[in-house]
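Narrative summary of target 7.
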Amino acid sequence: MSGKLFHIVCDYGQGDLAWSEIVSAIFDEGVNEGVTIWPTTANSFDTISTGFAVAQLGARNFKNPDKVFIFANCAPRKDDTVARENNEGEGLLYVKLKNGVRVLAVNSGHSLSFVRPYIAEVWSTNAQSGGSQFRSRDFFPVSVAQLVARNDLSFRNKQLGLEVIPEATVGLVGYVDSFGNIKTTYRQGDLPTSGLKPGDILKVKVGEVTMFATVSGGSFGVADGELAFAPGSSGHEAHYWELFKRGGSAFEAFGRPKPGSVITLVKSAKPKT
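Modeled conformation, tokenized:
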């Protein structure tokens, strides 16, 4: 296998001009021949869905992990809430995963939290952190090209410990897919999901909306129109639980909650119809 797979996870809308500018800049720096670039959109300024996507794309058991790369850019500049000088933002980190996949990501919020258990090395980089509102176009492509096109790690600065990356928070909306399924940050084995069994009824509150859901071994284990709480397709060795409305959208049913919204689960009797 001679080609390389290069995932880009950014919080730009699908088809936005920003995507074209970033891809053009990365291509111009030398990430072109033999490289498949694949973009994934996260919600604007949303490090939860960014981090969820990074982990899902990076932590699988690849047959050729040395040919897989991820660049993640979601920089809400929340690390310091005062006025920013020279558009400075969160720094760019280099991460090597235990499976061999390599990642360049802005260390913002939860952008690296979900992949944290899979990390073997973390490094700061010499990528410029200020001087442009659009660093992912103007500065970061140089480091990206060094890594992806030339396997040149001279952009690394200082090796860091995992403490620079916050742990993932359990019990949140993690990601919403195009079907309206809500991927939660509860994993199989996490409390309070560890004792659940198919057929249990839960009172589920997401944000300000409360609904009843049936615990199922799979998303289609409920009747059409009903809400299921089931292990989903994300999470690799320990799947994340999903809220799934068969024949509809759990996202719409819960009032279009944002990633990061708190989810509470309470076992309940089946409501009377």
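The CA atoms of residues 128 and 139 lie 6 Å apart.
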